[in-house]
Design goal:
single chain, alpha+beta, Glutathione S-transferase Yfyf (Class Pi), Chain A, domain 2, 2 domains, 4-stranded mixed beta sheet, about 5% strand, binds glutathione
């Protein structure tokens, strides 16, 4: 299986972390976003919107980070720990996957790509959305639960981790969210987990 990725992508980090947690053999293909390789015909055949991550496993071609999490969990975790079969927990997982692609994308991810990559996004608006998200969704859930869905780690935790773990570098303090900070540390302590790298680590002090 091949993972098409880029080290600066929090979306791609989801796939990288899951492959590592499940110890799945794979080849890494870094797509050169800076030179526009993601918009070239070869790559558009894999990901029509020209985005990372993408996963190719034989005839299976996936162009979305949360679909990659679902695929890996169903294919490589026979015990269904990462995507439980229990209807209520599976539905909770889906709720948090949706949170990762909507509110986390608009809040923490928006702050990161506005600050570091010049995206045409209102930075202050993204910061405000991040605080609302932490205050309304994450802190209450994590006050009485160690994990986002059910009582064990799932793909919901993996999907939501990256952009929140990286948000302080983007200028949004998590000081007021102790439950979320403890949750981030619990995820980072999971056997096989790889934490998200900071922009400064990847790009050097010019970031
Ligand atoms: N729905 C996609 C979104 C992925 C995404 O936005 N990837 C960004 C990098 S973090 C990208 O490739 N952007 C380049 C572009 O859209 O042109 C997913 O969840 O995988």
């Amino acid at each position: 299986m091949k993972l098409y990725t880029h080290p600066l992508s929090g979306h791609a980090h989801r796939a990288t972390a899951m492959l590592s947690l499940l110890n799945v053999d794979h080849e890494v293909v870094v797509v050169d976003l800076q030179s526009g390789a993601h918009k070239q015909p070869d790559y558009l055949n894999i990901s029509p919107m020209g985005q990372v991550p993408a996963l190719v496993d034989g005839d299976v071609v996936l162009r979305d980070s949360t679909s990659i999490l679902t695929y890996l969990a169903l294919k490589h975790d026979a015990d269904r720990r990462w995507l439980p079969a229990d209807p209520a927990i599976a539905a909770q997982v889906q709720e948090w996957l949706t949170t990762s692609v909507k509110e986390v994308f608009e809040g923490p991810c928006g702050a990161r790509i506005s600050k570091f990559f010049g995206a045409a996004i209102d930075y202050d608006g993204a910061v405000e959305k991040t605080h609302n998200l932490m205050r309304i969704m994450f802190e209450p859930r994590l006050a009485h639960n160690d994990w986002l869905a059910g009582d064990a780690p799932t793909i919901a935790d993996v999907a939501n981790y990256g952009y929140i773990a990286a948000v302080e570098e983007a200028g949004v303090s998590l000081a007021d969210y102790p439950n979320a900070r403890e949750w981030l540390a619990r995820i980072e302590a999971l056997d096989g987990f790889v934490r998200i790298q900071s922009v400064a680590e990847i790009m050097g002090s010019s970031a």
